[in-house]
Design a protein that fits this description.
12 strands; seven-stranded parallel sheet; 17 helices; five-stranded antiparallel sheet; alpha/beta; 401 residues
Length: 401
């Protein structure tokens, strides 16, 4: 089978920015990740072997001079030493285990140094998603000419509505071509349509380079989850903000706050960090309720919320983004990161509801044991981790079922 991931930077920016912060702040930390199909899909026979074959093919990837030059130009907040790290980076199939159980459910686990395995997640999710449609034959339904038109129309509507938005769709895209088509359409729409809104770019580094766009992204929940596993969830957000600011000195200042819910984050979100970070990202819960909580917090710190960027990324489509825009436009600086709706929206095709989450961590390789960790967002459907760990963290955080 052809290699699905053919470019080193066919990945999301936040994986590279987190990798850099991990090397600087947690260079010896070891982690485990686990795949979860929230729909409990039964995969075709032999699927696991083909996923492992694709992971093995990642060993052929090398970052190019063109990719390095683009990253240095557009991501000048990333230190130069990290570019040297990427030049020498090599994937290793031994970091991953893939199998199917007797019922055909897919299992994937990663284990290794955090700074290495962190660059597997997005690529492997994209592999699983695209490979599923190839093996089931659903990819034969993909009409890319129609997809271009529909993507252009989505961008047109968002721009006319005044929405500032970007593509976040690498992880669960129907195919590389689907994301490429969507990004090209939205980029061309931005050039042709003059409205209050704008298409700001894509999380995908390679496509940002291909279409001369701004790479978009900062961090993911795993950064806070790993810290919570090492040091506990009560101060995990505080430690994460401290380490992030140490690495980026005020750049990449949109913090993803909902790893353990709003309550504990708000206690950690003191005036210094509220001023330092340019905004927050809403990725779970009711968007209006979360925004109201954020606004009240900023006001309690004597900070004008209209000066702060709030990025909404919780399962959005065009209609939901426009609805939020009407509510938020006079309250903050709203923007929207839209994923699956942009890159996996073919008629009659169901997007994969798949994630890979960090589940265990140890501070150094010399430690004889791992500590389990979990995620407790504002949506219980987005919880991750085993039941015992979830219960332990909930008790520590004084959360109720």
């Amino acid at each position: 089978m052809r290699q699905i991931i053919q470019h080193f930077t066919d990945d999301d920016l936040y994986k590279f920015t987190m990798c850099c912060a991990v090397i600087e702040c947690f260079p010896r930390t070891q982690v485990k990740y686990q795949f979860n199909d929230r729909d409990n899909t039964v995969y075709p026979s032999g699927f696991a072997e083909l996923v492992m074959e694709q992971i093995s093919m990642l060993e052929n990837l090398r970052i190019t001079d063109e990719e390095i030059a683009f990253m240095r130009e557009r991501c000048n907040y990333i230190p130069a030493w990290f570019m040297s790290f990427l030049r020498g980076f090599r994937y290793d199939r031994n970091w991953a285990k893939v199998w199917q159980d007797s019922e055909g459910h897919l299992h994937i686990e990663f284990e290794g140094c955090w700074s290495n395995t962190i660059l597997l997640e997005v690529k492997v999710l994209a592999i699983v998603s695209e490979l599923y449609y190839i093996m089931t034959g659903e990819n034969k339904q993909f009409d890319y000419e129609d997809y271009y038109s529909r993507s252009y129309d989505k961008a047109h509507r968002l721009i006319e509505a005044g929405c500032v938005f970007s593509d976040f769709g690498t992880r669960r895209r129907a195919s590389f071509e689907a994301q490429d088509t969507a990004v090209r359409a939205m980029s061309e729409c931005q050039k042709n349509i003059h409205g209050k809104g704008r298409f700001t770019g894509t999380s995908n580094m390679y496509l940002a380079m291909k279409y001369n766009l701004t790479p978009i992204g900062t961090m993911a929940h795993e950064f806070v989850c790993a810290i919570a596993g090492m040091y506990g969830p009560l101060m995990a957000n505080h430690i994460a903000m401290t380490k992030w600011s140490h690495t980026y000195r005020g750049a990449l200042g949109t913090f993803l706050y909902d790893t353990y819910g709003w309550q504990i984050f708000s206690l950690n979100f003191s005036t210094d960090y509220a001023n330092m970070f340019k905004g927050l990202r809403v990725d779970s819960g009711d968007n209006r309720e979360q925004l109201d909580l954020i606004i009240d917090k900023y006001r309690s710190l004597n900070i004008d919320p209209q000066t702060k960027q709030i990025v909404f990324s919780n399962g959005l489509n065009v209609d939901r983004a426009i609805e939020i825009q009407k509510y938020a436009v006079d309250k903050c600086l709203p923007s929207y990161g839209i994923g699956t709706h942009f890159t996996n929206d073919f008629d009659g095709v169901k997007p994969r509801n798949i994630v890979i989450k960090l589940t265990a961590v140890k501070i150094t390789e010399s430690w004889p044991f791992y500590s389990q960790t979990c995620k407790l967002s504002e949506d219980k459907g987005k919880y991750s981790g085993d039941k015992a760990t979830l219960a332990r963290f909930m008790e520590t955080l004084h959360l109720t079922e």
